[in-house]
Amino acid sequence: MTQELASLFLCGGVAVLGSACATKSFVQKQVSETESKFTQQMTATETKLRETADRTGESRQAIDVADQRLNGLDLRMSEVGARASSAENRANQATGAARDVEARLSQRVASRNRYRLLDTKSVYFDSARIEIRSQDVNELDDVAKALTADPNAVLELQGFADSRGTDRYNRELARERVEAVTRYLMQRHGIELRQLRAISMGTEALGAGEKASPEALARARRVDIRLFAPWSSWEDAQSQNAPTAPEQTVTVTPAPRGPSTISALPAQTEPMEPPQAAPIDAPAQGRLLEFLKTITPKDLGEE
Question: What is the DSSP string of 159-221?
Answer without folding.
Answer: EEE-SSS-HHHHHHHHHHHHHHHHHHHHHHH---GGGEEEEEEEE-PPPTT----HHHHHHHS
